Amino acid sequence: MRMAELSAESGVPVATVKYYLREGLLFPGERTSPNQARYSAAHVQRLRLVKALTEVGGLPLASVGAVLAAIDGDATPHETMGVVQQELAGPPPKVSGEAAEWAAGLLHELALRHGWKWHGMEDYTVGNLVAALATAKELGHEKLAERLDEYFALAMRVAELDVEVVTGLTSFDKIIEAGLVATVLGDRIFTGLRHLAQEFVSREVLNRAP
Amino acid sequence: MRMAELSAESGVPVATVKYYLREGLLFPGERTSPNQARYSAAHVQRLRLVKALTEVGGLPLASVGAVLAAIDGDATPHETMGVVQQELAGPPPKVSGEAAEWAAGLLHELALRHGWKWHGMEDYTVGNLVAALATAKELGHEKLAERLDEYFALAMRVAELDVEVVTGLTSFDKIIEAGLVATVLGDRIFTGLRHLAQEFVSREVLNRAP
């Protein structure tokens, strides 16, 4: 298909498609004349993916580039998902002092208890978790942390479901893409469901007048 | 305490404290002379809360203002949490067409099946969920949606835990603040735990070379 059709099919404006081509977020089409190229269904899918990552996932374009480079590389699906997670988490806010040490200790113990690999504070996922837990403590709301084991047990069940959804697919390319979709959209979807569930569960308890 | 001490205690720079005072994000101190005021522990806590919402929660200042106005108002905890959820979700990206209709239908059925109130597409939580599900379908990864009931069942268990943590507190003011903390930080914490769990669960399955 031509550029105009690619744009219509993917819902991405022509100027944006050209920008993505220049930035390397979209691979070039097959050249048919000095200033024309032919694009395929793979181009449509890639544009939809970029749109999903930016519009629904809220990722900045630089992170989208890093994620796509990981997808296109020859890393294993597991390594690729590692890159995706780091980009999604982003660099954590700085925390230090007693609360930060307490939070790091708590999480390290959790890791030891469950036998997962401890990546240390340089890992963005770990760093952001520590920042959130330390902030809760500083606010005097560390009760959340007392139930961390229960939250983690539920997170494990969600992750098992995620992996089941993703590995039901046959090709490795599809699995990596599905892993990306499951992570980026899956985070949004689960958070939304949790909010709906919170409203449902708390209606009785929290609806008394103050 | 004086302004300098308030700044040191909360970790928020003096210029930022003054800006928050002007913007109404922080209530004024008790005036002790024409250009001096005395601040209390409540001011420190409020500044820590603003910091948590912006730095860890990633909320823009306008949303922080709306959330604090809701907290300070005389709505029930349940209504207050409704405002918090809308601000956290933000306006959804525009989706339309077949995929959007499919996603809205799916979610509406889920609501009917579980007996929760259907707020319709104007609700930001619902709108964002529909956008994420529709995007997954457009990308050909609607398998996620086939397991929506299972995801929702787990979200219900997380929400039950959330409400338990929050309602263990005695005063209504504390409950509202804890609800805010549990939602803003709780979303970050659960997403982080899910990512760690995904890595743990998928190590075996996804670590084969492509």
TrEMBL record, chains A, B:
Residues 1-70 form the HTH merR-type domain. CDD domains: HTH_MerR-like_sg5. Keywords: DNA-binding. InterPro entries: DNA-bd_dom_put_sf, MerR-type_HTH_dom, MerR_fam. GO terms for molecular function: DNA binding; DNA-binding transcription factor activity. PANTHER family: HTH-TYPE TRANSCRIPTIONAL REGULATOR ADHR, REDOX-CYCLING DRUG-SENSING TRANSCRIPTIONAL ACTIVATOR SOXR. This is MerR HTH family regulatory protein. The lineage of its organism: Bacteria, Bacillati, Actinomycetota, Actinomycetes, Pseudonocardiales.
